């Protein structure tokens, strides 16, 4: 007679964390929810700015009948971590050899400079060639100020970027990298 | 013979700064633009979060054909000033004797606590009885934690609020009051 409770096989769960089909934005949003829940940080994606050309009042309240998306001039995410102001942008590219600067809206690069000027922590989270990098705003600005190129070669990203590893919870613990880069010592 | 150029009367411009017909939100937005322009601070109104139930692609890009407004769980404005994280809400009330707490969305009051916990500067700019007050988040939370009342009596606001005066440029220099309350010494 067997004792099913005792000879029960260990369930082998092989979880490939990097392959849950979440895009970069979802990884970040999920991590931000974790940070808020655990009282680690308050970081949110800013709503996309909308222009409204037609709206009607219904019993559900005001409803937009004609609206369009405006180009943002600030970055996607901002918030507070360990008393510090944080702002960043998330980008994914399918390009393998270089990251086109056209991925940024006109005012965003100038805006990065401004955030740094005011003492904020500012960076870009970039997914390229299957790897997620944190690129410091200062490195990005430095590249742009000293190059006339319209795209950043991958070699620059490999040399200057800090790899953020995907994991289980939180899915993308980018604040660990922020700690190491910005808040040590 | 008269010399019109010489006897020209001084044009008397009597500008009543408090009476330009701008509502509180416009006063704040205009001041924020001034702060950004003069490199004093980066503070923006967050776009209202929108839910989209129908969108179509046109030659102008993606256009919203059915959208609704979501209740915000954070506050209206955030940004960075002198390296500090700032977040606040702007409210106007026609009530004369008390400010109803129903003016806040469900999660907003809890959110004020969170911002304070993370070391941010957090307050409410309240226009009531024709006067614009800055109410510290900590005072607001203190009131709520020690009262079961659903509205804040005006006497509390008069005692604990800091008056922000309207002026010419910027229209509402609330950062001057922030300096005095939070950043002195």
Q: Could you characterize the architecture of this molecule?
A:
2 copies of one chain form a homodimer. Chain A has 185 residues and is α+β, with helices and mostly antiparallel strands. The first copy, chain A, has one domain: Trna Endonuclease, Chain: A, domain 1, CATH 3.40.1350.10. Helix content of chain A is 29%, strand content 32%. The first copy, chain A, contains 6 helices and 10 strands, in the order ααββββββαββαβαβα. In chain A, the strands form 3 sheets. In chain A, strands 1-4-5-7-8-10 form a 6-stranded mixed β-sheet, with helices on both faces. The first copy, chain A, has a two-stranded antiparallel ribbon with strand order 2-3. In chain A, strands 6-9 form a two-stranded antiparallel sheet. Chain A is globular, with a radius of gyration of 21 Å. The first copy, chain A, starts with a helix and ends with a helix. Mean pLDDT of chain A is 88; it is low at 1-16. Strand 3 (61-69) of chain A pairs antiparallel with strand 3 (61-69) of chain B.
